[in-house]
Specification:
Blueprint (H helix, E strand, L loop, with lengths): L9 E6 L1 H18 L4 E7 L3 H8 L6 E10 L10 E5 L9 E9 L3 H12 L4 E9 L12 E5 L5 E2 L15 E4 L7
Helix pairs in contact: 1-2
Bound molecules: xanthosine-5'-monophosphate (XMP) and magnesium ion (MG).
Magnesium ion (MG) binds next to loops.
């Protein structure tokens, strides 16, 4: 796919779609080895739409898909750790083995909260799959059971990730040119 029209807005590509798909194959293989059925895969809207769609198609174990939308209270692009549920699950997690699928782990605050929330509701187990992680940005330790790529602490877009709701549709992960931020 050609995205040369994005050429002046993107700075560099960090992870190509080919690299993402290969990594998701590894992650799915490990998930298949770890579970035998009765898996509830929870995608976190909206950023995880791409990784959810690609990952579940590589998993062979039977599973259900569900979605949550959450938002950190407070302003700006930084997570506060106080999370508000914008859209809750349709499924009852009681007694279920839950796999949360996330786009990116930045401070870790959102996922730490989400994991605890699902365990408090009676999930039998909660594991985390994320395609990206920024190790330098971690504020809390969150165990990522299935990880794609560690990346530098830079704002990234593409493959579900947005800047002001743009760039989610790019099939790769990249950084934005500084002028796009209004700089
Ligand atoms: P925390 O800090 O709680 O945040 O781990 C996770 C959420 O923050 C968003 N996020 C990003 N979104 N580019 C984005 O488009 C980024 O570089 C980025 N870093 C964090 C994302 O919604 C994630 O779920
Ligand atoms: Mg976002």
């Amino acid at each position: 796919m050609d995205h040369t029209d994005m050429g002046d807005k993107l700075e560099k590509i960090l992870v190509t779609n080919e690299e993402i798909q290969a990594k998701l194959e590894d992650m799915a293989r490990q998930i298949d080895a770890d579970y035998d059925g009765d898996l509830l895969v929870v995608g976190v809207l909206k950023g995880a739409v791409m990784v959810m769609a690609d990952l579940v198609r590589k998993i062979h174990s039977p599973l259900n898909m569900d979605w949550m939308a959450v938002s950190s209270y407070g302003m700006g692009t930084k997570s506060s750790g106080v999370v508000r549920i914008l859209k809750d699950l349709d499924a009852d997690v009681t007694g279920r083995h839950v796999l949360i699928v996330e786009d990116i782990i930045d401070s870790g605050l959102t996922l730490a909260w989400l994991k605890k929330n699902l365990l408090d509701r009676g999930a039998q187990s909660v594991r985390i799959a994320a395609i990206l992680r920024k190790p330098e940005a971690a504020k809390v330790d969150v165990q990522v059971d299935y990880l794609g790529f560690d990346i530098p602490d830079e704002f990234v877009v593409g493959y579900g990730l947005d800047y002001a709701e743009q760039f989610r549709h790019l099939p790769f992960v990249g950084t934005l040119a500084p002028h796009v931020y209004g700089g």
